[in-house]
Amino acid sequence: MHEAITVGSSNVDLGDSLREHVREQVSSMADKYLQHLTRAAVHFNHEGVDFRCSVNVQVGSLPLMAGEALAKDAYQAFNQALEKVAKQLRRTKRAVREDKAQRIDKQVPFG
């Protein structure tokens, strides 16, 4: 699944440990929520002394989900942006689960 995840930067030297951290976290988030990661792109750049991280995730046939964060540390910026995407996935999973039709014969009568 790691081949579906791209990690890039404009003007930041990304180390192997950051790239691996990104790939592991995105994979585990996708597995946790909907398990069908189509593609993901993570991009870092500098804004003054801070790091900006953009995370775009495509899961199955759902619309692209995106999160962006600005922080003093690249790991912190990534974690904040990923949490925004995870929140969108949680809400989507809940909506998909609640859209299922309910069986009439399984309803419990009010007592």
Structure, briefly:
Helix content is 39%, strand content 30%. The protein is an alpha+beta fold.
User: CATH-wise, what's the superfamily?
Assistant: Ribosome hibernation promotion factor-like
Please name the CATH topology: Double Stranded RNA Binding Domain
Q: Give the domain tally.
A: 1
CATH architecture: 2-Layer Sandwich
The CATH first-level class comes to Alpha Beta
* Average residue pLDDT: 85
Helix percentage range: 25-40%
Distance between the termini: 49 Å
Largest sheet: 4 strands, mixed
**Helix-strand category:** alpha+beta
Strand content: 25-35%
DSSP, total strands? 4
State the low-pLDDT regions, or none. Answer: none
**Element order, helices and strands?**
EHEEEH
Discrete helix count: 2
